[in-house]
Specification:
The chain is an alpha/beta fold. The protein has helices at 3-18, 36-42, 47-50, 52-65, 79-86, 98-111, 148-158, 176-184, 203-208, 233-246, 251-256; strands spanning 69-73, 90-95, 117-120, 133-139, 159-172, 200-201, 213-221, 260-267. Strands 1, 2, 3, 4, 5, 6, 7 and 8 form an eight-stranded mixed beta sheet that branches. β2, α6 and β3 (117-120) form a beta-alpha-beta unit. It is globular. The two termini are 27 Å apart. Bound molecules: S-adenosylmethionine.
């Protein structure tokens, strides 16, 4: 990997290893990280439960992939993989960071589900043979790696022909969040600093990366400003100023400013 990308991956690793997604939602500091109560406490704020379209996607894909082998990249604490495992999909769950892997292992053990494997892996350089998986699932990951296009290419490489790439939550521009990021160095979703990389891309740029795929679905999501579990001045400005005003915009216009873009595609 070329030096500057290696440097970025190392910064991305250090950021996420200290801040596995979910830790920022803890409001009861007495909870032991990785305990059953801990996973229950943050659960309502995690993707499949917070965003109804993610749970719908899990249901839809699980019906297609029952008994098949899916790779999740950037699994965080493993909430998406957990729901896929509960629906009889065979899952290999991976993340760049060892803390995420450790939390995912504990999470699965608490829930009594068995993955094929839970291990560290860099989506920019996956430690798997070509054509290994029936599906690759990523949720809120590829835009945060430092090289989104390379991540999509690696996804294509490890998929069997006919395999499904289910990539949720590319960061889209133009979008309301892009404006907040550019104008305010907005930091409403994370407790401290922003992650080192958040690549915002146009829909054309995103779709252009899917060489060797047939697009099954490409949808705009998160076009309303939703609640965030944060305190502080920026969060207050967002919650009491920006959010109610923005959400008055008619839906047809708001959809054009959607924050996220998700693509499901089949390897050809
Ligand atoms: C926003 S979090 C999403 C976590 C999880 N998918 C979820 O929705 O809860 C981004 C995750 O991507 C992981 N990540 C970032 N760069 C990665 C890379 N190059 N390879 C694999 N995982 C990566 C981070 O460690 C982090 O766990």
């Amino acid at each position: 990997m070329e030096n500057s990308l290696e440097y970025t991956v190392s910064a991305v690793h250090d950021y996420w290893n200290a801040r596995t997604l979910g830790l920022q939602y803890v409001t009861d500091e007495s909870l032991q990280v990785g305990s059953p109560a801990f996973f229950g406490h943050i659960r309502p704020w995690m993707n499949p439960y917070k965003f109804p379209w993610i749970m719908e996607r899990i249901e839809r894909e699980a019906a297609i992939l029952k008994g098949k082998h899916l790779l999740e990249v950037g699994c965080g604490m493993g909430y998406d993989s957990l729901e896929l495992l509960k629906r009889d999909v065979r899952v290999t769950a991976t993340d760049l960071t060892s803390n995420a892997v450790e939390l995912t292992r504990r999470h699965f053990a608490i829930e009594g589900v068995q993955a094929e494997e839970v291990r560290t892996a860099n989506v920019l350089d996956l430690p798997f043979e070509d054509h290994s998986f029936d599906a690759v699932w990523a949720n809120g990951v590829l835009h945060a790696t430092g090289d989104t296009a390379r991540a999509v290419k690696e996804t294509r490489r490890v998929l069997k022909p006919g395999g499904r790439a289910i990539i949720s939550h590319f960061y889209r521009k133009p979008s309301w969040m892009y404006v907040l990021h550019r104008w305010g160095r907005e930091n409403i979703e994370h407790k401290e600093e922003d992650p080192p990389v958040n690549e915002f891309l146009t829909e054309e740029e995103i779709l252009g990366m899917f060489e060797g795929f047939e697009i099954v679905e490409a949808v705009r999501e998160h076009y309303r400003a939703l609640p965030v579990r944060r305190s502080g001045l920026k969060a207050a400005l967002y919650t009491y100023g920006f959010k109610p005003l923005y959400n008055m915009i008619p839906e047809s216009i708001a959809k054009g400013l959607a924050y996220k873009y998700s693509v499901t595609a089949v390897a050809v």
